[in-house]
Specification:
The chain is mostly helical and 141 residues long. Helices cover 77% and strands 0% of the residues. Helix 4 (37-46) packs antiparallel against helix 5 (50-60). The protein is elongated, with a radius of gyration of 20 Å.
Length: 141
């Protein structure tokens, strides 16, 4: 069976049919099965299966993990899942974006914890002001 799947003509035919249907996750699985990891990752991203894309990248393309984590978090932001995006921004070392996501998600304690872990807060004045105002308002209420 594996030799049939790896036949280039059959493989391209199946991928073409799956592409017409927008079945990018399935294309990603197929490419992964035949060892074409780069194409696999590309299709998992197209299919919004960032978990699988990151999983494969960690093993085969570790230099892409950070950018995939950012893309995953950006996707989560686009569907209003700010709280879930925080950790992916942290994984990608994008503290400013993680803080922004935490603020929008009203996770001010988490935003403050992220700030506390930073050596340098230059460029984060707006976020720091929002966090400070939140805790100030909380204390004064």
């Amino acid at each position: 069976v594996e030799s049939r799947v790896t036949d280039p003509t059959l493989l391209e035919s199946v991928i073409s049919a799956l592409t017409e249907c927008g079945e990018y996750k399935e294309i990603g699985e197929l490419y992964s099965f035949v060892g074409r990891k780069k194409e696999s990752i590309e299709n998992f991203v197209k299919g919004k299966d960032y978990s699988r894309a990151v999983e494969i990248a960690k093993t085969h393309f570790p230099n892409q993990v950070s950018s995939l984590e950012v893309a995953w978090a950006d996707h989560l932001i686009s569907i209003n899942q700010h709280a879930t995006a925080i950790e992916h921004y942290i994984e990608a070392h994008q503290s400013g974006k993680a803080i922004d996501a935490a603020i929008v998600a009203k996770r001010f304690d988490e935003a403050a914890r992220i700030v506390d872990r930073l050596d340098n807060t230059r460029g984060l004045e707006r976020q720091l002001s929002i966090i400070q105002k939140h805790f100030s308002d909380e204390i004064c209420s």
